[in-house]
């Protein structure tokens, strides 16, 4: 299975972001064609902690056990969606994203624990600086997104308590408009020291 590990914001948080993004998209449309933007579906908005790629079934039992341990060491986190930016730069971006604010230090520690757990299972997880974000759009050609990021600069969504770690399967091209379809296959509570139980789905 093609898997990643994520924190998924609740519906109220996604609703608020969707409302803000609708205003941004209207502004883009009024300024001219926005065909360069391939917008992510609301159902795809999540905070990726580690992308695992294709994971063999033989590794999943050990992976579940280790992810459960990582979740058990992390307390619930206070987070909010705030601001935005572009990868690789706002002047020549290929990806438009919304930022994350709040308990960032423990969030980064959780991401590090998740990546370490995956590597101990023999998975090839790329190392690098963790930049918490939600992907809003991918650009077909690199473009200047400063107008969009300026519109998002003052955005601060409702705070929420992130209390679960999710293991998500990505089914390529099976979603709406040939987008990927995401399916949570297991999750664990963030319990800050208690012994978590994996919740299979």
TrEMBL record:
Superkingdom, natural source: Bacteria
Reactions accelerated catalytically: a 3'-end 2',3'-cyclophospho-ribonucleotide-RNA + H2O = a 3'-end 2'-phospho-ribonucleotide-RNA + H(+)
SUPFAM superfamilies attached to this UniProt entry: LigT-like (SSF55144)
Enzyme kind, highest EC tier: hydrolase
Span of the annotated motif HXTX 2: 133-136
Motif HXTX 1 mapped to chain: 46-49
Active site as annotated: 46, 133
Regions that span the bilayer: none
EC number: 3.1.4.58
Keyword Hydrolase: yes
Keywords: Hydrolase, Ligase
Molecular-function GO term, any one: 2',3'-cyclic-nucleotide 3'-phosphodiesterase activity
Pfam families: 2_5_RNA_ligase2 (PF13563)
Family: Belongs to the 2H phosphoesterase superfamily. ThpR family.
Function: Hydrolyzes RNA 2',3'-cyclic phosphodiester to an RNA 2'-phosphomonoester.
Protein name: RNA 2',3'-cyclic phosphodiesterase
